[in-house]
Design a protein that fits this description.
This protein is α+β, with helices and mostly antiparallel strands. The protein is 43% helix and 22% strand. It contains 17 helices and 14 strands. The strands form four sheets. A six-stranded mixed β-sheet has the order 9-10-11-12-13-14, covered by helices on one side. A hairpin with a 2-residue loop joins strand 11 and strand 12. It starts with 5 loop residues before the first helix and ends with a helix.
């Protein structure tokens, strides 16, 4: 075997994110269209779970990986094309692309064009599994949200294909156990009616797990939320989260709703939905907000919308900022100081811990610890944290204002 020189080897390396294209297809014409810039074609955000931490694919020139999905049932067709592969006498073999993708695709996929055309024809009769719990119109289009658990075998089959998106769009995501009936799943579809026929297009989903809450209740924890790229930034995420809230709040066994390791985008979405909900409650009206955070706010938010006490405090700060006249120096300063007092709580706890630590350290050691925890550093960190938090709050407030208008 002949080794490949480094310069030539690099010619056979490509960024996985740049050569993978997803596309929803309704007919064979969609397959034949080679336009990667149309509204139905999109790229992955993450590829490391399939192609490794470097997110590169070795062994090909002119590589293109098309992953086609039927619009409803999400049956897959994977098509790999390239202009050249690494020479056969090379010491390094090209990556086995289909094998790597199949390892992350438990439901499988086809590599046969004709078979996928048949899947598209069957897809016309696809219907969502589960119970319809909400519907809404947006830009003259109809959308429906369904609730299901894995006790529904038809939903279990559908979910095995739906979940494949998370490895491409949720960092460090993992597939959930579809034999655990404690999972609640909410799926979003566009309902399209034309010429007397109705078909459904998959838009997104939300999953949550029911944890035990002492003594006789349960605590749903939101795990994964994804609106597929062609449908993002249209308000569907808020509709999906609101439908999940409404469904959970109607269950008398639910004590409150929590979130597992939320991303920045989801935190912003959650704050938006919670702020809209709380703004309708008596204790969150502007005159009450300016009187400070209260137990009444905690109880109202929990009883009406199953919002946790910690999240309620954040929503209070957000809505109080919205009600604050920032041109009034005194009013704005009072707001900033109250938020900073909350942000400073960890420092106060740390201070007490340091005082206990003094008993066990030599004077020189204790002095070194104090220097590393200087007041100036704390003030700088506190100010930075506040500025970042206010910026996040303002982004949500801006969206609330646009929504209200």
């Amino acid at each position: 075997c002949a080794p490949i020189e480094r310069g030539n080897r690099e010619k056979f390396v490509c960024e996985a994110e740049e050569v993978i294209f997803f596309k929803f297809c309704e007919s064979e014409a969609d397959l034949l269209s080679d336009n990667d810039d149309d509204n139905c074609t999109f790229k992955p955000e993450f590829t490391h779970q399939v192609f490794g931490d470097q997110e590169v694919i070795f062994g090909y020139k002119g590589l293109k990986i098309n992953i086609y999905y039927t619009v409803g049932s999400l049956k897959q067709y994977v098509k790999v094309t390239h202009s050249e592969t690494v020479p056969a006498n090379s010491t390094v073999e090209p990556d086995n692309i289909l094998k790597l993708i199949s390892e992350q695709t438990p439901a499988g996929f086809t590599t046969n064009h004709s078979e996928f055309v048949m899947d598209m024809n069957k897809d016309k009769s696809f219907r969502p599994a589960g119970d319809l719990i909400s519907s809404y119109k947006l830009n003259d289009k109809t959308f429906e949200i369904y609730y299901a658990t894995f006790e529904n075998s038809r939903f279990q089959d559908y979910h095995s294909r739906l979940q494949t998106f998370i490895i491409w769009y949720i960092d460090a995501a993992s597939y959930i156990d579809d034999e655990d009936f404690s999972w609640n799943l909410y799926t979003l579809f566009e309902k399209v009616s034309s010429c007397g026929e109705t078909r459904y297009k998959s838009i997104g989903f939300l999953s949550c797990y029911n944890y035990y809450c002492y003594p006789d209740k349960k605590r749903p924890r939101i795990s994964q939320v994804l609106v597929l790229p062609p449908y993002q930034k249209c308000g569907h995420g808020a509709k999906l989260l609101t439908a999940m809230y409404d469904h959970a709040c109607a269950d008398p066994l639910v004590c409150d709703i929590t979130v597992e390791d939320p991303s920045e985008n989801f935190t912003r979405l959650r704050n938006f939905v919670d702020a809209l909900h709380c703004s309708s409650l008596p204790s969150f009206q502007p005159e009450k907000l300016k009187q400070g955070f209260s137990k009444e706010m905690v109880s109202e938010a929990r009883d009406k919308y199953k919002i946790t006490a910690v999240q309620t405090r954040k929503i209070y700060e957000l809505l109080r900022l919205r009600a604050t006249d920032v041109s009034n120096e005194k009013e704005y300063k009072e707001y900033r100081l109250e938020v900073k007092r909350r942000l400073n709580i960890p420092f106060q706890k740390e201070k007490k811990s340091l005082q206990k630590l003094e008993k066990f350290l030599k004077p020189t050691e204790y002095e070194a610890v104090l220097l590393s925890k200087s007041v100036d550093n704390q003030h700088e960190f506190l100010e930075k944290s506040y500025r970042e938090l206010e910026l996040e709050y303002r982004k949500v407030i801006e969206r609330i204002s646009a929504h209200v208008e």
